[in-house]
Amino acid sequence: MIPVPGFEGRRIAVFGLGRSGLTAARALKAGGALPVLWDDSVSSRMQAEAEGFAVDDLTAADWSDFAALVLSPGAPLTHPRPHWTVDKAKVAGIEVIGDIELFARALAALPDEQRPRVVAITGTNGKSTTTALVGWVLKQTGMTVHVGGNIGIGVLALPAPTPDAVYVVEVSSYQLDLTTRFAPDVAILINISPDHLDRHGGMDGYVAAKRRIFARSGLALVGVDDPWGRDTTARLKADGRAVASVSTSGDAADIMAAPGELTGADGRIDFRAARSLRGRHNAQNAAFAWAAARALGVPRDKVLEGLLTFPGLAHRMETVGRLGRVEFVNDSKATNADAARQALSAYDRSFWIAGGRAKSGGIDDLEDLFPRVVEAFLIGEAAGPFAARLGDTPHRISRDMASAVRQAYEAAAATGRDEVVLLSPAAASFDQYPDFEARGEAFRAAALALGAVPASAS
């Protein structure tokens, strides 16, 4: 745990007792604060009480006595309208912050010689893979590395700071909106495409939230394959900031990334042997990991070794098994069209399982990739609309995961050639599953039920 100083003896309102909220309360308490907790969930309140925390109905509390509000990133700060706790905090004249901000303040309180380094990663797509990849590469060199934030472990639950440590932290737009002093040594913005617009009041608000990662950062690494990344890079350079750009589109950039290959200040880097970094989007992830590791002083050969041995992440273009000549690939994390584009682009042919709860635009932006789809198998609420959009592209409505996997396998096996059954839904999971992880596990279970040999055993 990372104790948070600066609020000793002061009452702090904490709303939202999920992973980040409860962890924040523990860290505040360890730093000497007096957190007062509340959540709409009775079970969450009971858990907090069982840990000995003060639990009080914040709707009726005296807010004049609070020093700050620590808000769960799941609660809206501004849009569609501010959460009621935000309104109360504004009336009381107290700041509204989140767990990443508490983390930043805990590190800032340390003397310079005791302060660890921080690599922070955000973006619409690919941030979890890039975070895990940066952490993996650094760990292979023997560094003390702690990975967390919006991925895995809440940032304040990571081990306490030591001077030799590097924190590799994934941060969402929701978390960044709640920061004022976050100052990573290396800040990465992978890409930006429309997402979470309801929570940020539109594209301008979403982009502004993402850009907050650079407010106090050292080296800025920016993907320039989208107009928002290019504009961000131009703004940073105009301000005299240290910035390096990454491109997969062939446009001029400091690092050019193509499948299995990087070109930049270190010359040409060939990582085609990295089985878990297939596709153009993973080349982009590799470029950021390369640049971040080199900025932290990792030798060239050690970075390459890390790229080649990276095992990949579950639910992100994860090969879960093989049956005969058919490979089953789980990309359940692809909850929007832009994410699904990366997986579809990685294969010349695929038997594509898609659908769920569609996001704005559905699969309209994927039309240029439909020729790569041998046949699509559609599930969930979006099955009908996706079928209409696919038009003449072969498809069938499977409705549920087990049926889709079985039908896709039978169709793939019938070709008598090496094929891929690809789950890359281009939609949220919430119509059928509690999250994308559960959806990915359902895909894995269906493939194994057919007799697929797990990837770990092949």
UniProtKB/TrEMBL annotation:
<dbReference type="InterPro" id="IPR036615">
    <property type="entry name" value="Mur_ligase_C_dom_sf"/>
</dbReference>
<dbReference type="GO" id="GO:0008764">
    <property type="term" value="F:UDP-N-acetylmuramoylalanine-D-glutamate ligase activity"/>
</dbReference>
<dbReference type="GO" id="GO:0008360">
    <property type="term" value="P:regulation of cell shape"/>
</dbReference>
<dbReference type="InterPro" id="IPR013221">
    <property type="entry name" value="Mur_ligase_cen"/>
</dbReference>
<keyword id="KW-0436">Ligase</keyword>
<keyword id="KW-0133">Cell shape</keyword>
<dbReference type="GO" id="GO:0009252">
    <property type="term" value="P:peptidoglycan biosynthetic process"/>
</dbReference>
<keyword id="KW-0067">ATP-binding</keyword>
<protein>
    <recommendedName>
        <fullName>UDP-N-acetylmuramoylalanine--D-glutamate ligase</fullName>
        <ecNumber>6.3.2.9</ecNumber>
    </recommendedName>
</protein>
<dbReference type="GO" id="GO:0051301">
    <property type="term" value="P:cell division"/>
</dbReference>
<dbReference type="GO" id="GO:0004326">
    <property type="term" value="F:tetrahydrofolylpolyglutamate synthase activity"/>
</dbReference>
<feature type="domain" description="Mur ligase C-terminal">
    <location>
        <begin position="315"/>
        <end position="426"/>
    </location>
</feature>
<dbReference type="GO" id="GO:0005737">
    <property type="term" value="C:cytoplasm"/>
</dbReference>
<keyword id="KW-0963">Cytoplasm</keyword>
<keyword id="KW-0131">Cell cycle</keyword>
<comment type="pathway">
    <text>Cell wall biogenesis; peptidoglycan biosynthesis.</text>
</comment>
<keyword id="KW-0573">Peptidoglycan synthesis</keyword>
<dbReference type="InterPro" id="IPR005762">
    <property type="entry name" value="MurD"/>
</dbReference>
<dbReference type="Pfam" id="PF02875">
    <property type="entry name" value="Mur_ligase_C"/>
</dbReference>
<dbReference type="Pfam" id="PF08245">
    <property type="entry name" value="Mur_ligase_M"/>
</dbReference>
<feature type="binding site">
    <location>
        <begin position="123"/>
        <end position="129"/>
    </location>
    <ligand>
        <name>ATP</name>
    </ligand>
</feature>
<dbReference type="InterPro" id="IPR018109">
    <property type="entry name" value="Folylpolyglutamate_synth_CS"/>
</dbReference>
<feature type="domain" description="Mur ligase central">
    <location>
        <begin position="121"/>
        <end position="293"/>
    </location>
</feature>
<dbReference type="InterPro" id="IPR036565">
    <property type="entry name" value="Mur-like_cat_sf"/>
</dbReference>
<comment type="similarity">
    <text>Belongs to the MurCDEF family.</text>
</comment>
<dbReference type="GO" id="GO:0071555">
    <property type="term" value="P:cell wall organization"/>
</dbReference>
<keyword id="KW-0547">Nucleotide-binding</keyword>
<keyword id="KW-0132">Cell division</keyword>
<comment type="function">
    <text>Cell wall formation. Catalyzes the addition of glutamate to the nucleotide precursor UDP-N-acetylmuramoyl-L-alanine (UMA).</text>
</comment>
<keyword id="KW-0961">Cell wall biogenesis/degradation</keyword>
<dbReference type="InterPro" id="IPR004101">
    <property type="entry name" value="Mur_ligase_C"/>
</dbReference>
<dbReference type="GO" id="GO:0005524">
    <property type="term" value="F:ATP binding"/>
</dbReference>
